[in-house]
């Protein structure tokens, strides 16, 4: 999940909230006056009402596959129906069924051992040394397989890098380093900006594609950008997977501590720290260790379905191509019965706010007296908190072929802090649509701020990424850290406060004194961008050499 802007109890029910419901929208190329009026109708109080309902205790934290999550999906579908939008889900409904299963590792019954060819075996302590998930959906798994040190576990032809060159890893365990080869060259793994090759999810997927049995990702805090406790805690709860996902077949999708990796490499007579350095240089060759992993993994498995909710506003022309999707996830973390006190993760900011914006965008588009040239889709997706699973499924099964979709604009956690004078649209610069984004932001008096933590891989941690990976140009529209009436330090302080005290906590609850005027401004900004994308006379693509360019070229039903 991308790092979120904060909210704080400082907010007052100020005159900002009491402004007129309409706000001026600047004239921009390709958007007729009637469409601008529709954008101007976007109402912060309507966004507020949606967030209040979706973040209420009645919805029990909107966990996917739960009563509260189902109520949220029904509410969103009802709003789409009231707007007069066309169902775009399964069988003439607003709902796209997403088949899922959840895995919870039974820690006290799961065992891992490193067994060298010669010498004493090393038993690992679950939670302290290693954590794992069996992606197969089986209740137990037995593993006895050789271990291959595969460097960063990356095959990136565009960077002339292949850690799997000359080695067969089928049926084996991969030992890999988190992140990607170090670089100061923007032309080589984008320098200090993380590519998807650096994400731990990619390493699991690539290993599965090559037939590996499991993966041991070496955790090093500076390379991961978070401590071991974050890894351990995230694995202590159940993790969901898409049914029949070909890239989720590992019996042991695991992390190990750096000190444990050092002991493992010492069994092969090598130094782990030296090998990490070597693995980051051209010419590195993966090699098999004289050590086997023996493991017994026990899991509790829950199978369920959850819904993406999808609606369409048909365009003025029936010609294919240039469709636009607006997306926002509605799920959150549900209820944790083991907590003391408040047990409900209400998810008001994350992502009640994105849903409120999505629903108000849908209403404004539906009420417009003129229609955009091509269809506009509104998708509220499930299981984002489980790993972008709802949007992944939608990307695999879009309402029209991916090649006919011009753009996805995603909204995820817009803190109701007041009116922003900056926006974060990280990833937009990777697309040919960026000149329009820059010009429109300027017209809205929004300074575009770059990703302030490029090494953390935030672009790959929200639902727009699921569309990008199938080639669709995609990015999220977020607040920056600059707000009217405040200096930059104030916005940064709110960010830090949210991260420390409210992010994925039961305290992320709706507050009556929140100011939704900024959420409305960014909704209007997105309305205009989407209309422009629908109007462009040429398809939107990725910049030459971008990691998603090849997927765009392979898109079905291209322009």
**Name given to the CATH homologous superfamily:** Zn peptidases
- Kindly state the percentage of residues in helix: 25-40%
Write the CATH fold name.
Aminopeptidase
The total of beta strands comes to 22
**Biggest sheet details:** 15 strands, mixed
Secondary-structure arrangement, i.e. CATH architecture: 3-Layer(aba) Sandwich
- By oligomeric state, this entry counts as single chain
Q: Strand portion, in percent?
A: 15-25%
Number of helices: 15
Q: How would the global form be characterised?
A: globular
Radius of gyration: 24 Å
Q: Which segments are poorly predicted (pLDDT under 50) over 5 or more consecutive residues? A: 1-21
**Spatial separation of the terminal alpha carbons:** 32 Å
- Give the C-level CATH assignment: Alpha Beta
How does the helix and strand content classify structurally? alpha/beta
- What is the mean predicted local confidence, pLDDT? 93
How many structural domains are formed by the residues? 1
Q: Mind explaining what this structure looks like?
A:
The protein has 559 residues and is of the alpha/beta class. It has one domain: Zn peptidases (Aminopeptidase, 3-Layer(aba) Sandwich), CATH 3.40.630.10. The protein contains 15 helices and 22 strands. The protein has a 15-stranded mixed sheet that branches. Strands 20-19-22 form a three-stranded mixed sheet, covered by helices on one side. A two-stranded antiparallel ribbon has the order 7-8. The protein is globular, with a radius of gyration of 24 Å. The model is unreliable at 1-21 (pLDDT under 50).
